[in-house]
Predict the structure.
Amino acid sequence: MAKTSEMKHLPQPSGIRRNKRTGHAGRAFAIGLAAALAAGLLSGTALTARTVSASSVPEVTLRVCNWEEYIDTGDWDEDETIHLPDGDIIGKQSMVKDFEDWYLKTYGVKVNVEYSTFGTNEDLYNMLTLGDVYDVVCPSDYMFMKLMSEDALVPLSDSFFDTSDPNNYYINGVSPYIKNIFDTKSIGGENWSKYAAGYMWGVTGVVYNPKAVTEDEASTWTLFDNPKFKRRITIKDNVRDSYFMAVGALKSKLLTSDSFLNDPDYSQNLENEMNDTSPEMIKKVQNYLQNVQGNVYSFETDSGKADMITGKVLANYQWSGDAVYTMDQADEDNFELDFAVPKESTNIYFDGWVMLKKGINGDSEKQKAAEAFINFLSRPDNAIRNMYYIGYTSVISGGESPLIYEYLEDRYGAKDGDTDTVPYDVNYFFSKDGTGDYVLTVPKEQTKRQLFAQYPDGGTIARSSIMVYFDQAQNKAINQMWVNVRCFNINRTPWWGRILTAAALAGLVYLAIRKVRAGRAEKKHRDAQNLRKAL
Amino acid sequence: MKFSRKSLGIPYLVFLVLFVVLPLIVLFWYAFTDGTGHFTVTNFTGFFTDPNALGTLLYSFAIAAVTTAVCLLLAYPTAYFLATSRLKSKSVIVMIFVMPMWINFSLRITALKEVLTVIEGNLAMHPFLNSVIGMTYDFLPFMILPIYTTISRLDGALTEAAMDLGADPRTTFLTVTLPLSVPGIISGVSMVFLPAMTNYVVLDMLYNSTYIMGSLIGSYFAAYNWNGGSMIALILLAIICLFTLLTGDDGEEDAQRGGALL
């Protein structure tokens, strides 16, 4: 791939964000959290007071909460302009400001966007529980399913899905593939698309150093307990990703067997297998992850990408957007890293916009602004700006607009003089019936590099599975499993450890006794003195 | 309104109520209720019957104890020689010890990570050792400073008197200087031991994937179990209080005893 100055905007933000996707919900020390709560209780009433405007233009306030670094903040240099056959794209001012201007121009209403961010899905959920009020938020699939099941969301209005309105960029531009998923995946009998509009999506896989790890070795979840790479590979420090990986590794034989692959219900079977939370499976996963813990370099939240680039580790469990970032960074150091998706299965994930009941609160003007916000982000040129800025893949394929496909050709297409080129089929994403002319001609290396990470091929998509929303009992069991893996179990204390502990405890007891005695002696002494004085 | 000196304390009182008292009340409330707001002690009993929680407590204790011991062994001689030497530029040397504290914590640990990688090759092979090194690096100044201050404030006449009365340097040190510096040691120990029990960031950054108390609490909150998490925080608070009570006044007492020895 030709490196251009365009790339330089991309890496930093995506890197910081996605790695916190499902990590430890801000391990805020309980006291700190409680302090926030207390402060929130006191200031809550003050914050909800609305400002009354004197101007004649109607006003509406829209409270948006999105992932950190997950939207274009503008300020591009002139030379970063993306030149496409159907127009130039440049982010001059922030996407949020652009939306406010566009809304005023299109609907004659002044919208004030109060934009906030969150670090992990769990953080967002805790913020909402603590009483923060937002109108529109962007959690990942399992979290909006949780919110759906808790009846916390406002359904998208019928007019949002009206294809005759040219301002409805979402429904007119969303990829048929993504639309189908949102229309068919459901929870509690309700489809995702009733409440959620997609924003970004991706798959999980492995970034690896091709000099030390072969493509075959990297293309399986069993990589992480492969003793050949003892202490040279990292996995994610979060329970959902680790669980998926372990299930994939444990069921590797089954998932790659012919009879399983050729079953007519393959997709559904795959989803069932990958979301197996039976007690036996959880037990097995625990044992497996305990082995993995002894084999990997670390459970990382932040450090994986940097450690890949500095060569401390040879392979790294990664989300596709971060994988793009890692490879871009390595390219800048003239150091090749590739991306592989395990042959067993990959976790396909989505971040989607949903509107909250507590925020919208029946205000139709607010809901209109919220839906317009989603539509504005879905306008193809804006989708490109966001993709370029954050590195993840937009759910928008453009519909009638050719922009997104042109952007792909611009970034990944073979340049004059490239000799080793191959066709790369992305019809599944762009075409309604999965066939058509959406076939890029790309340098061969791109089939296992950035393009592959950003738009995986059809075969990869076929073996992708969502991770369903686990109910409370399942979550509890899985979280317990995770704690069992991560904690030092007191029953594993060696004999000398037990002796030392006993000695330390005895020391403490001795100190305590001495303390109490000293206190008594002092009291006696004082009493005696008082008595003497009294006499 | 008449201004009195007491009103100077009002800002701090407000701070105290807002950020210490109220959060503590919230903490207690969560720790002793279940998810639905009913009183329960299962969070409390749960902690003491959970081998993972107890194991984590033990592991945190082990890390903290070894860190404290290493810090003490490094800090005491340093502080002693620094305080008793006749160097003119003492304050400069003290500043050198304090200087790392001016640099951002995560930056320091990141640098340490690179240094240790050069020395050890693969960091992941020695998680416990690395954690102790990281903590020691981070907390050493907190041990040196109080000991240095205590020793440099010692009345030189006391050691001279001991020498005059025929004690050799070793006896002088063991029976005069050491007992008199105990208050410094104790304040150093509590400044190192307690944070070392919960500073999981060092472990995270140095690739030790075993939980200590801080990360255990975090994992409870990530799983939306605020009640269990609050209880662990509370238990930790109780342990810290107990620890402070046990060692607290002892310092002065020992100092008096040390003084009384003469």
Summary: Residues 175 and 253 of chain B are 15 Å apart (CA to CA). The mean pLDDT of chain B is 86. The first helix of chain B runs from residue 10 to 31.
